[in-house]
Design a protein that fits this description.
- This protein is of the alpha+beta class.
- It has four helices and four strands.
């Protein structure tokens, strides 16, 4: 499954933003150690500071990853499960 993770920097995260590249590498390694993969990462303008597209075996992997991110205190997340174009088309065609 694919998940979209929307992230907002906390006060702590913005104060240490110069360390963000290192924190990103740590997060990527953490997810990979859990068996997941980041397919895309974007720094964004607007309501969210970062967006990541993540593949993981199941919700438990994603939850462990997100709890680790939250516990570090630099970002707060909103996560959505995403369906691919093919998955969406398969569902829609059965209506």
């Amino acid at each position: 499954p694919t998940y979209i993770i929307l992230m907002k920097l906390t006060d702590q995260g913005i104060r240490a933003v110069k360390d963000a590249p290192d924190r990103l590498e740590t997060a990527i390694n953490s997810l990979e150690a859990l068996g997941g993969k980041i397919n895309g990462f974007y720094a964004t303008l607007g309501e969210y500071d970062y967006i990541a597209c993540v593949d993981a075996l199941n919700e438990a992997v994603v939850m462990r990853f997100l709890l680790g991110l939250g516990a570090a205190g630099d970002v707060r997340t909103t996560t959505m499960k995403a369906l691919s174009k093919d998955e969406f088309e398969e569902i829609a065609r059965k209506l």
